[in-house]
Design a protein that fits this description.
Two copies of one chain form a homodimer.
Chain A: E1 30-34, H1 49-54, H2 63-70, E2 74-79, H3 113-120, E3 126-131, H4 137-143, E4 146-149, E5 169-174, H5 177-187, E6 201-202, H6 205-210, H7 213-230, E7 233-234, H8 244-271, H9 279-288, H10 291-312, E8 317-321, H11 334-354, E9 357-366, E10 369-377, H12 382-395
Parallel strand pairs in A: 1-2, 1-3, 6-7, 6-8
Antiparallel strand pairs in A: 3-5, 4-5, 4-9, 8-10, 9-10
């Protein structure tokens, strides 16, 4: 534990720093980047020493990082990631698991664990992460900060390592909805829809029912604040598929497995890397995934996409708990962690399968541990969603209007 | 020149073959894949021996390849690509440049040169390629076959090598619009827009004026056939920017350079690969690209995207020459090739910058060499565009109704 990194958020070794290259909305702010984005002259470890050893130092800086520098922000370091970004607890036995600043006896969440911890601890104003199956949203919820998974394809992942390109997105964290939105101004493409066009609020009952009662109860006041801002909430089931969260989980899991092995299997087979608990097992399961199950997942995905996009086409916004529960305790067994993972991924898979944008707001606590409320909108409505999150956050008294 | 590969379309070495894994629209058809897609158990050379030497054999098969196998097609081999897909002539000094079956004294076009040549020579019914700055559309035009660059993000590039992720797409070639469409049924996500919704035809005068007069004249009958199918054509300038094709070229070139170096620079710096004529120079230029010029390119891109998406939002279809001229002669100097490249990329950059879908129809000849007519529609309208290309092709007598 060093004085400038009390929560072990940054990767070991010399800090990757870069001065701002321009002036803009992020003037005076500091940021960190998950160590799967390239920063020129520095290794990109991808959370695993064997990866670092078998890949060259970065010759260029990822365009998403350049965009933040151009907008006035200062890079102060690279943050820890779960190995190859394949995990949701935030554990990394090689680099050390970051401390969850808001709940030190619990996991920080991952895979963007260091970015969430650095923001939550106030070490940086802003941090880039990536989100394939929840890797920004889950640590945002667990660490009590704002986080966005943007619409799929909306923000550049050039110069970043891939896990499952069908789902990979470049997301980010901040302690205020305002800073989250300002970073969006630097990173997002222009939007066709106007910021005023979001609504009605759709409660997505299946997801609330899936949440632990204490988590749902802790987030109800935030939902009511959202209703005040947008207008009357409408209680809807996500769609007409029975057992929906089991089906989104299953489809996501099978497609992601195929994607992960197609992306990283060649390197794993050739290198035989040393992995921490759970990671190697997940890649072994990815390798063993049957093409038929992945194809079934894609068929479900196609129908689910059509349905959900139609539901959200007019500007509707789902609102539901980001995760069904707060972060698991550090003492949780691997089996308990896997159970949390499965139950959480059915929810995060909704935006993942459909390519929706999702912002998690640090809107409640359960026994002192943070839980987040997600706002979820149709593809391409990222700027409108960030603006809405800011208004809700102001209405809740989380930040000044 | 071997009996089963008279045009040198396939990469050297044992053929990568896979039997169909299902039944569907592609039953009985054969296909090849550009050698930047992974096929389990085979190297992915990316057109360069140093790449092949420094990367492991593929442990998995790219999902796009799996989708064609599932739809009933048989994989018969991997086809040549320009090194690291960074070039439009189709030359590869390491593996040998494929012959253009329709114009043997001219380049086949690239970077998906082997896929276009294999389809044009009748060696396969269908072939996968990739298109960043024209790498499917240009060889389709040069070799007289159908080719599609789908909407950005519409078809999986998982398990495929990247050149510029902001622009990279998975496209394909066929000798008939019907087979092109059937492959789309296997590869494309479901579409929200109905197939009937395309029109009116928009002539995009700037692009016609940019074409050599003989090329424009050769494609006018096809344009008239298109008008017959869709209804009256409307002559429009692409938009309100003066000198538009210079600006699209410049924006595309600068962003692509930044993307290419961010994606491949680390490997190039670490490996110092041996490159053929032009390729090393293009990467050197990519390395030297100033962030300011790339940022300027992105600013132009943002405004251009908004304008063009608005123009096409109602279902309009641009129609213009895919390339301003037929393939350059094999005897063309590097300077002549570069001039053709610059003049062509201003046109291909339209779909590239905006993420539009584009189908090139083998609709004319100039002095015996093929030239293509492109139909270009808004993002996500791929299935409708393929259906329209088939109707136009039937109206032109290129295939049976």
């Amino acid at each position: 534990m060093t004085a400038d990194d009390p929560v072990h958020a940054f990767v070991p070794g010399p800090r990757a720093t870069m001065a701002p290259t321009g002036h803009g909305p992020l003037d005076g702010l500091s940021f960190a980047v998950k160590d799967l984005f390239d920063v020129q002259g520095h290794p990109t470890t991808y959370g695993n020493p064997d990866w670092a050893r078998t890949h060259p130092v970065a010759a260029a800086t990822a365009p998403a990082v350049l965009a933040l520098l151009e907008a006035g922000a200062r890079l102060v370091g690279k943050t820890k990631t779960v190995e190859l970004a394949f995990g949701l607890t935030g554990e990394n036995i090689h680099h050390g698991t970051p401390v969850n600043p808001k709940a030190p006896d619990r996991f920080p969440g991952g895979s963007s664990c260091g970015s969430a911890a650095a923001v939550a601890a106030g070490l940086v104003d802003l941090a880039l992460g990536s989100d394939t199956g929840g890797s920004v949203r889950i640590p945002a919820s667990y660490c009590g900060v704002f986080g966005i998974r943007p619409s799929w394809g909306a923000v550049s992942l050039t110069g970043a390592r891939a896990l499952g390109p069908a789902f990979d997105t470049c997301g980010w964290f901040a302690r205020s909805a305002r800073v989250l939105r300002l970073a969006g101004d630097a990173l997002l493409p222009p939007e066709v829809h106007s910021p005023e066009s979001l609504g009605p609020v759709l409660k997505a009952q299946s997801v609330w029912i899936n949440a632990e009662p204490a988590t749902a109860a802790a987030l109800l006041p935030a939902f009511e604040a959202l209703e005040q801002v947008v207008g009357l909430g409408v209680a809807v089931r996500v769609e007409g598929f029975p057992g929906i969260l089991d089906r989104t989980y299953e489809a996501f899991r099978c497609i992601q497995a195929q994607e992960a092995w197609a992306t990283l299997g060649s390197w794993i087979e050739a290198t035989k890397p040393s992995f921490g608990p759970g990671v190697g097992e997940r890649f072994a399961a990815a390798k063993a995934m049957s093409p038929d199950k992945a194809a079934e997942g894609r068929h479900f995905r196609a129908r689910f996409c059509q349905r959900i996009r139609a539901v959200l086409a007019g500007g509707g916004v789902f609102a539901y708990p980001t995760s069904p529960m707060p972060a698991p305790l550090l003492s949780a067994s691997l089996a308990e962690q896997d159970a949390v993972r499965a139950r959480s991924m059915g929810v995060t898979a909704i935006a993942g399968l459909v390519g929706l944008c999702e912002v998690s707001i640090p809107a409640g606590q359960v026994g002192g541990a943070p839980v987040g409320l997600s706002l979820v909108a149709g593809p391409g409505r990222d700027r409108a969603l960030l603006a809405l999150a800011e208004r809700v956050s102001q209405a809740m008294g989380l930040e000044a209007a």
